[in-house]
Hints:
With about 160 residues, this protein is mainly alpha-helical. The chain has helices at about 5-15, 20-50, 55-65, 70-120, 125-150.
Amino acid sequence: MATNLQQCYELTRTVYNQKTSNLLKNFMKLNKQFIHHGASRRFLIRCRARDVTPKHINDRMKSLLSTHFYSHTQKDKFNGKFCDYIKSSILNFEISDIHSHLNHLNKKMNKLKTVINSIVRDVRITKKFFGLCREKLLQLITVFIINSIKNSTTF
């Protein structure tokens, strides 16, 4: 029986076909995307909770902030509450967008899992594959958590 994902892909390709092996790889790829985007969402939500604007939003705002004003009072108003409102709106849109994308990925993963289970009738193979996926994904989550803790000190 396969002891890692690569062996599981090769076993599936041998027992079934390349297309079935590719379904397993796509399932893993979707899971990795889900974890990555989940970490991004958590980062953005943490930024919103701490009232911090992420760097990528501040960078996008630079072109707006360089707008020419004749009046200093208008420029001060623009650079004050109005820019804060735009930044928080962009942040909220990004959180909402990632949330929608995560729902989409989750639906795709569930459909793909159903397809895999219908094609690969050997329960031992699917159980082993999904177990190996879980192990690999837990490793990825651990890396994201460690990086998150490291980055939170420079937040």
